[in-house]
Amino acid sequence: LAKTTQPISMDSYEGQEVNITCSHNNIATNDYITWYQQFPSQGPRFIIQGYKTKVTNEVASLFIPADRKSSTLSLPRVSLSDTAVYYCLVVAFKAAGNKLTFGGGTRVLVKP
Amino acid sequence: DTGVSQDPRHKITKRGQNVTFRCDPISEHNRLYWYRQTLGQGPEFLTYFQNEAQLEKSRLLSDRFSAERPKGSFSTLEIQRTEQGDSAMYLCASRQATGGSYGYTFGSGTRLTVV
Hints:
The complex is a heterodimer. Chain A is built from no helices and 9 strands. Chain A has strands spanning 9-13, 18-23, 31-38, 45-50, 53-56, 61-64, 70-75, 84-92, 106-111. The radius of gyration of chain A is 14 Å and the shape is globular. In chain B, strands 2, 4, 5, 6, 9, 10 and 11 form a 7-stranded mixed sheet that branches. A 4-stranded antiparallel sheet of chain B has the order 1-3-8-7, with no helix packed on it. Chain B starts with a strand and ends with a strand. Classes of the chains: A mainly beta, B mainly beta. The A-B interface holds A 32, 34, 41-46, 49, 85, 87, 91, 95-105 and B 4, 31, 33, 35, 40-45, 48, 55-56, 89, 91-93, 95, 97, 101-109, 111.
């Protein structure tokens, strides 16, 4: 499974856009990219997933270049409540298992 | 509430005691996963079930750990002869294997402290 590398931490201010880039150089053809958010004392929460190009939902956007060796999670106009750990994962598209392999994540601190 | 429920939320136990945690997944989800998370780290996979069958176990799941999912509904994770190194957050997640979203739904976890 492709290893992911993302920054350990990022600081931002309310109202700004936060972009977190994740590297996954060894991503396989059948892998897709998924991002989770985790608040303290809670389980991770699915944010967004994609295979290529751009995916957008009500929470975030995910940009994946053509070579798929990296991806960028974009959080528009963050608020204090977006302070959390964000995990980038590569998940194999296969019938069995699909267990998630988490790295250390990126701790995002949104300041007033 | 249609989320994943875990019980208890917190457990403090003395070293050497046995503990059991329960997870109630989303009812229509046939896959159930257990993860362990220590402070400052991402969750680590322990085991997963498809319906009542336990299909994969991590090397992290020593012989002191056992998980069951009778009748393919709720699941229990038991730790025997607890050690201080077992202190962690134990997370349960569920998903539907086919159709729907690929996203997992996690519970809020059981925080275990072994003293």
